[in-house]
């Protein structure tokens, strides 16, 4: 903003019923008229100055314009007036929200004590200056990583509740609602209205953004405006709004609707939509497309399952066509006959072997019995032993009076020898019994 220094107050003789303001005391005060005259004379010495700011008020009364001009950095404002004769020389498209420079001259009304500025010239700030400032801000934000795709949040597939920030009763609101409901009739919105241009645009948009971001039911936030010239879109390149969008935890969609010289909000937002209609298409899926996709997927799944089942049935039939599976009892029957035959053969062989061994055992038993001393004793023979256990084989071994022990087939008894006696059998008849 252009600065200036006050000039000396022109000399003026004080009225006879008053004193100069500097010389006033409690006992000799100056008059209100005298004070206003002094202020007016001081202000008129300033001359004309060029100032830069934003039009925040533009009221036309009787061909004259009464408005306010706001500083671009602070909240400082001045009031101005444009006489009808001057207005005819100014651009016809001046309006609230425009960034302008104006040549103004201060005027102090002594009757009301109001300070205002008369405009003698006013024009839009050159687009080149605006773009230069925006490019500097763009470079700064890009260096900080606010444009980095990696930090941008993905949109939910089907949001349960959409937060919408737009102007009240605006075409942008109608476009978003109409196109979203056409795509998904059950879609729900939570709308916060905000000024979409002028000095209220940034603070109201930031307040609406924070309110929706703090709402746990809101899944995505759309900031929508139906386009406009670069002058009216400056609020959407404000650094305060851009940083608030970057700090939001909820995905934000920029739908300002201005293809050329788009505001910086498009670069900071998680998703940029070219128009409010495009925003509705990006945020809400098309129910018809989803149904068609489901039908396609269902058809593909049915085809794959049919192919798999058909393939498995063919494999099963191939297995069932094999003889062993077609008539599994035939193999068991054949094996059963074989097992029976082998079993009978085994039994026969084992029986013959047992009979043979039984006969052999009988033969051996008979031979053993024939050779057994018990068999000899059964035939009437006996075994005679002396008292010391020696077997008597000679009559001389049993002298008279010798006690003998005789073992027969069934039992044992004692006897006493009476000495040798003559053998009554003829010679050669074999041994005699003792």
TrEMBL record:
A GO CC annotation given for this chain: cytoplasm
CDD domains to which the protein is assigned, alphabetical: ExoVII_LU_OBF (cd04489)
Superkingdom of this protein's organism: Bacteria
GO MF annotation terms: exodeoxyribonuclease VII activity; nucleic acid binding
Chain positions covered by the region annotation Disordered: 1-27, 414-434
UniProt keyword terms in alphabetical order: Cytoplasm, Exonuclease, Hydrolase, Nuclease
Coiled coil feature spans: none
A single GO BP: DNA catabolic process
Catalysed reactions, semicolon-separated: Exonucleolytic cleavage in either 5'- to 3'- or 3'- to 5'-direction to yield nucleoside 5'-phosphates
Domain Exonuclease VII large subunit C-terminal: 146-345
Compartments in which it is found: Cytoplasm
HAMAP family: Exonuc_7_L
Subunit: Heterooligomer composed of large and small subunits.
Biological role stated in the UniProt entry: Bidirectionally degrades single-stranded DNA into large acid-insoluble oligonucleotides, which are then degraded further into small acid-soluble oligonucleotides.
Similarity section: Belongs to the XseA family.
Name of the protein in its database record: Exodeoxyribonuclease 7 large subunit
Gene name of this polypeptide: xseA
